[in-house]
Specification:
Elements: H1 3-27, H2 30-36, H3 41-44, H4 48-54, E1 58-63, H5 65-70, H6 72-81, E2 84-87, H7 93-96, H8 106-117, E3 121-128, H9 135-138, H10 144-161, E4 168-173, H11 186-191, H12 195-206, E5 211-216, H13 224-238, E6 245-248, E7 251-253, H14 262-271, E8 275-286, H15 291-309, E9 314-319, H16 329-332, E10 336-337, H17 350-363
Parallel strand pairs: 1-2, 1-9, 2-3, 3-4, 4-5, 5-6, 6-8, 7-8, 8-9
Antiparallel strand pairs: 8-10
The structure holds ligand 9MR.
Ligand 9MR is lined by residues 88-89, 131-132, 173, 249, 280, 328.
Length: 366
């Protein structure tokens, strides 16, 4: 189906779904709330990945490599449910170059092989970030020239190692503060804002076919941060810097309202000729979980997915882990958790069913 048709269809269908979700959330007893989210059996039989393909959309997950190695049901779901994967941690700089000049690609290569075995595409995550840098780099006290050379070699080395195997790279991650100013990272401090254009140029030289993304959180709706990012990518495009896409992470919390203007925001990037993707969706819940919170969570996933389906060049929707059994959330947000679409026993939650229903509506027409 042409994606413009997909958007028109989803606009109507998802709006109806959203209204019914609101109605249920407002008036429901736990029993009928659960009933509402039961998908029709033909939809339940299909994986998110399969439904997504019919809507011209890859549905991905971040993968935790220790869980993949030790937990057979986890491995089966990761292999069967999704059509793309992102390494949650193993392609980060501290993992791939723990000592200066000593590279360790083993874990990342394992994920790339896993994806190939299962017919999945890979999102590379991430080349330039302020976090999860190796200690030798953080403590190195390098001059600007040295640091520029180190960054150049890192990007060239990593992108070359995976050349031809990575669909989309998160080249630059989390470069902005929420107020729209640039994050005062080691890169900005020592290299100035030009490090972003350099990073894209170097990545493109190393693998001209990979799609190159800039990725961030709290940019789902129209706000100071997403506007600053929009201004930056518009400028980069004008200068013919090879930036191809914008990744919207999508880390939400049921305590805050879902970003209902996400489609308006994503369209701004689409209008610049860029691809977009939801790259790290999860929706955390203040514990304990109850059905009202699960419905609110389903609605937030629905808003994110609908934003993507309504945007012509939104190419993929990735959840940041798929089961509550493994998640970064409880370790970082005290008293919160259950942020994923399957529970700890890999059972579908309302959020999974909402995604499934959205994709079925988008896929079934046109
Ligand atoms: O999920 C990742 C977690 O296991 C790591 O400890 C953490 C370290 O900062 O990074 C998490 O993933 C982050 C991602 O790479 C970038 N966006 C925010 C994600 C959640 O913190």
């Amino acid at each position: 189906m042409h994606k413009a048709n997909r958007a028109a269809v989803v606009g109507t269908a998802a709006a109806a779904l959203l209204v019914s979700t609101f109605t249920v959330a407002a008036s429901a007893t736990p029993e009928n709330a659960a009933q509402h989210t039961k998908p029709k059996s033909d939809v339940a039989a299909k994986t998110l990945g399969a439904l997504g393909k019919r809507a011209d959309l890859r549905i991905g997950t971040a993968v935790d490599m220790s869980a993949l190695a030790s937990d057979a049901p986890y491995r089966a779901k990761a292999a069967g449910e999704f059509s793309s994967v992102t390494p949650e941690n193993v392609m980060k700089w501290e993992a791939v170059e723990p000592r200066r000049g000593t590279y360790d690609w083993a874990a990342a290569d394992k994920l790339v092989d896993f994806a190939e075995e299962n017919g999945q595409l890979v999102r590379g995550h991430t080349l330039v970030w302020h976090s999860q840098l190796p200690a030798w780099l953080n403590n190195g006290d390098f001059t600007a020239d040295e640091l520029r050379d180190i960054l150049h070699r890192h990007i060239t080395g990593q992108v070359t190692h995976f050349k031809g195997k990575i669909w989309q790279w998160d080249v630059v991650n989390e470069a902005f503060n929420d107020d729209g100013t640039m994050r005062n990272s080691i890169w900005l401090q020592k290299l100035g804002p030009g490090y972003i254009a350099d990073a894209f140029r170097w990545a493109h030289q190393a693998d001209p076919k990979a799609k190159l993304f800039i990725n961030d959180y709290n940019i789902e709706g129209v706000n100071a941060k997403s506007t600053a990012l929009h201004n930056l990518v518009a400028q980069l495009r004008k200068e013919h810097v090879p930036v191809h896409g914008v990744g919207i992470q999508g880390h939400l919390d049921v305590q805050y309202s879902a970003p209902h203007d996400i489609a308006t925001n994503m369209k701004r990037f689409d209008d610049l000729g860029l691809e977009t993707a939801i790259t790290e969706a999860d929706v955390r819940i203040p514990m304990p979980v109850d059905n009202t919170k699960l419905e609110a969570q389903a609605e937030a996933y629905d808003v994110l997915l609908r934003g993507c389906l309504l945007t012509e060049h939104c190419t993929d929707f990735t959840v940041w882990g798929f089961t509550d059994k493994y998640s970064w959330v409880p370790g970082v947000f005290k008293g919160e958790g259950a942020a994923n679409i399957l529970d700890e026993n890999f059972e579908a939650k309302a959020a999974y069913n909402a995604m499934s229903a959205d994709l079925a509506l988008a896929a079934g027409r046109g």
